[in-house]
Amino acid sequence: MSNKIVVGYDGSDSSKATLDFAVGLAKSQGAAIVVAHVLEWSPYSFLTPNELEERHKRRAEELERAETAVLAPVVKGLADSGVTVTTALKYGGIADTLCDIVEAEGATQVVVGRTGHSGLSSRIFGSVAGTLAQISPVPVTIVP
């Protein structure tokens, strides 16, 4: 396993503080960081072919927007940090997809914020951080 830390990032103030924490951690451990942004996307199997085509177009547009508006500024902002930074942008359930990224990257740890953009839904269905702490294949650090 390489020394990589996956950081869950959604652009919220909490995830910015989480990223700052992860950069300090990476510096102290000589680790690289993978800034991971997950777009939630529910698969509907009952769509018509035209609806599916439109949905795929919107999906591509969302990926492009997330890369430009969320991840590119982070990479640019960390250019002088002394830490190797890469990104991962995926669709799916956030906790499960972060675990997939951890495994694909061979990461040794995942760092997430306690709160993010999920707001009300996390109070009803459970938080990403809580779920991740239960299912992650590597240690999870939850930043308050």
UniProtKB/TrEMBL annotation:
Return the InterPro entries for the record: Rossmann-like_a/b/a_fold, Universal_stress_UspA, UspA
Q: Which SUPFAM superfamilies match?
A: Adenine nucleotide alpha hydrolases-like
The transmembrane residues are none
Query: What region holds the UspA domain?
Result: 1-144
Q: What family is reported?
A: Belongs to the universal stress protein A family.
> What protein am I looking at?
Universal stress protein UspA
What organism does the UniProt record list as the source?
Aliiroseovarius zhejiangensis
Give the lineage: Bacteria, Pseudomonadati, Pseudomonadota, Alphaproteobacteria, Rhodobacterales
